[in-house]
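User: Can you predict the 3D structure for this chain?
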Amino acid sequence: MNKRIALSILTGAILGIFYILGASVRIGWQGNQHLIFSLWYNRLIMGLLIGLAGNLVIIKRDWNWVLRGASLGLVVSAAYFFTSG
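Assistant: Here is the predicted structure, written as C-alpha cells:
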C-alpha cells in the first residue's frame, strides 16, 4: 500500500474519532449508533479519497493540495448530507 494512502486513511480514522465524539455529545449515543458509525465511516472514506487523489491537479500553484483536499472533502460531506436528510 502506498505510504500516502495509508497515512490519509489513518488520519481520516483518527479525525473521525474526534468527529464522532463531538457528535455523540450533541445527539447522544443511545439509539444513534448507526448514525455515529456512519459519521466515522464518512471520514474514513474521505481520507481514502484524498489519499488516492495525490496526483490530481486542479490549479498549477503551490497551494493545489489545499484546494484539492477542500474540494474532495466538500464532495464527500455533501454526499453524506444529501443522503442523510
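The chain has one domain: 3-84. The longest helix spans residues 3-27.
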